Amino acid sequence: MIPMMLMVSVICFTITELQPGDFVSQYLDNPRISPEQIRLLRERLGLDKPAYVRYWMWMKGIVTKWDFGYSFAYTRPVGELIWERMGWTVLIALATIVFQWALAVPMGIYSALHPYSPADYCMTFVGFLGVSIPDFFLALILMYLMLQAGSASIGGLFSTQFIGAPWSWAKFLDLLKHIWMPLVVVGVSGLAGLMRVMRGNMLDVVGSPFITSLRAHGLDERTVRRHAIKNALNPMVSIAGSELPNVFSGTIIAAIVLNLPTMGPFFYNALLNHDQYLVMAFLMFIALITQVGNLLADIALAFLDPRIRMS
Amino acid sequence: MAGLAVLTVLYLVMILADFIAPYNFTATHRNFIYAPPTKIRFFDEDGRWRGPFVYPLTRSRDPVTFQLVFTEDRSRIVPVKLFVPGEEYKLMGLFKTNLHLFGVEESPDTAMVLPFGADRFGRCVFSRVLVGSQVSLTVGLLGTFLSVFIGAIVGALSGYYGGWVDIGIQRFTELLRSFPRIPLWLALAVIVPPSWPSTWVYFGIVTVLSLIGWMGVARVVRGMVLSLREKEFVLAAQVMGVPSMKIITKHLIPNTLSYLIVVSTLSIPGMILGESTISFLGLGIKEPMTSWGLLLKQAQSLSELQSHPWLMVPGLFIIVAVLSFNFVGDALRDAVDPYRTVEKV
Questions:
Q1: Contacting B residues, span 243-272, partner chain A, CB-CB under 8 Å
Q2: b or e along B190-201 (b: 16 or more beta carbons within 10 Å of the residue's beta carbon)?
Q3: Mutual orientation of helices A135-148 and A169-206 as an angle, nearest 10°?
């Protein structure tokens, strides 16, 4: 994984390099700042050195001191900034995955056991719809509907009175009242895909010979169904592992629209401000999560599938 | 089938957008800022049939909330006619005309027909949606074409030559695939300099979108080429001395065509959604060009949503277009899949 991460860091750096202008260029238009000051600023921040020197300095900082650089806009070390927001991001991502699975698996199973029924068509259509709606638009529609329904505080994770308050049962309930919107917005498109895959898997398994043999042995339907479900869930595990980065990136858009305290709006602002180190650190972090997700999926698959364990 | 019909309608409308739209998409109308959609009525107040018409709107300020309120002036009937002369534009960028498909013959200072209302500058949302369709729909097509093109060539090269070329390309695509799409989109979209003119930005966005898509195509094409490579006709071509590039382009890639068509149709919706997302965040298409995502950008804040919900209409168009493409792509995939055993009713 280390050589992969090295190359990932090169790509992150190149992408950020290609962006026109750097953090100081936003001051170029300001008549109160002289070109001399801008040059001094560049020197101080180390932005005037050639690309490979800066890359080397950045990597050295990460490897030796665990220092991801300095955010120009927030004037704080990048590591701190990411760490603060990581908690909510991970929480929302995990909650979304749970939400997706909790809905997709039963729907997929039901769809497969009653194929081509009206309920099946209905769920397939809803699935299609879920994939076709852009997530920011879904966020907008949900916000509009909540407004029409008279709700007062929409967006964000807490109502105004709870934002700085210490944790309490009421605060937790408030969180639940707010968190369903990000979950739905981020989860819906993945939900559709998961449901279809689950349905396909179930259909395959139910039609397979081993189910027929189980039935021939005289097992009742419920046990047969249990075996079928366990087998159908198998390929889904590797999908779950690769879903993790998708969910993470999905939270970005939803977070920007709904104003959540996660890394999404943060990354967006950093991009707009040419806050290089923040952007690079975030990209690296996401790439790391992807690798970890794939690794977890492989491990889980090996754990669940006895055939792989034996080989 | 319904998907194909909807798509045909959408693309036809897109080509004739300027003509179908009653107003120019950049023309601002001061008297109609944030006007709600005008109802096209057929029966007047006495219940008589009058043909399609609208009432002119007068704008006044509510004395209590200081908000702009539009009230219908029911004393006058302004008929909505077909083929009216209106604001000037260039039909399909070729020749100047001022004929519009429908509209009102009065000047836009007093009466306007606004099927989807007007936005912050008094621009007709319906017209802007129609013109925005030109950008949104073509970005999908161009981006997909580009990404499939690149992906097919890279995949074929990788599969045909094998060895170091293959391993190198595979490692590279694995690397790129380890990034999730949206942050990569956003990061690449910022690379397009904001100082470029609109059309260049358009092509920049198309390139950015296609750069993410080609990897999946390359992978599958590589797999197909790996199996095709062992067939006898390839051996025959090699023995005959056909140069490698020719084998790739004339024999291998055409054999993957059925898959390429299906994957193109299925990735167009992703491109359209991607472009909308980038433009919604302000990193994509810039003014004066417009796209559906950019139109939705105006509807971002809660207050906008509450007071002017008609600004959300472009989103419906996005959904319809993407849904249609998904249906068509799914049907195509089912038709091409050689393993289908179950007949769908």
A1: 269
A2: bbbeeeeeeeeb
A3: 130
For chains A and B, what is the number of CB pairs under 8 angstroms?
121
Residues 213-252 of A with CB under 8 A from B: 245-246, 248-250, 252
Query: What's the CA gap between B20 and B51, in Å, rounded?
Result: 19
Contact B208, B183 (CB under 8 A): no
Q: What is the pLDDT of residue B344?
A: 37
B277 contacts in chain A (CB < 8 Å): 134-136, 253
Domains within chain B, CATH numbers bracketed: 38-113 (no CATH), 131-336 (1.10.3720.10)
- Residue linked to tokens 């638009």: A137
Residue A298 tokens read as 């492989």
Percent of chain A past pLDDT 70, that is, above it, reads 73
Q: Name the DSSP letter for residue B10.
A: H
Flag if A256 and B281 touch (Cβ within 8 Å): yes
Taking CB atoms and an 8 Å limit, are B305 and A147 in contact across chains?
yes
Conformational region of residue B66, where left means phi above 0, alpha means psi within -120 to 50, and beta covers everything else: left
pLDDT of residue A46: 63
Looking at the complex, report in whole angstroms how far the Cα of residue B153 sits from the nearest Cα belonging to chain A.
23
- Rounded Cα gap, residues A118 and B215, in angstroms: 37
Query: What pLDDT score was predicted for residue B342?
Result: 42
Nearest CA-CA distance, residue B173 and chain A, Å: 12
Tokens of A281: 């650190």
B187/A271 touch (CB, cutoff 8 Å), yes or no: yes
Q: Indicate the burial class of B292 (C-beta count within 10 angstroms; 0-12, 13-18, 19 or more).
A: buried
Tell me which DSSP letter residue B251 carries: I
> Among A47-51, A91-95, B55-59, B157-161, which stretch is predicted with the lowest mean pLDDT?
A47-51
Domains of chain A: 2-67 (no CATH), 86-310 (1.10.3720.10)
Beta-carbon separation of A271 and B186 below 8 A: yes
Using the predicted structure, report yes or no on whether residue A20 has a pLDDT greater than 70. no
Structure tokens that stand for A307 in this block: 């055939």
Average pLDDT over residues B134-151: 83
CB burial readout A101-133, b (16+ within 10 A) else e: beebbebbbbbbbeeeeeebeebbeebbbbbbb
- Which pair of structure tokens corresponds to residue B111? 């009466």
A132 contacts in B (CB within 8 Å)?
269, 273, 319, 322-323, 326
Q: What distance in Å separates residue A113's CA from the closest CA in chain B?
A: 15
CB contact under 8 A, B179 and A286: yes
Supply the DSSP string of B173-224, one letter for each residue: HHHHHTS-HHHHHHHHHHHS-TTS-HHHHHHHHHHHHHHHHHHHHHHHHHHH
Check residue B267 and give its pLDDT.
81
Vertex A85: Cα angle to A84 and A91 (nearest 5)? 120
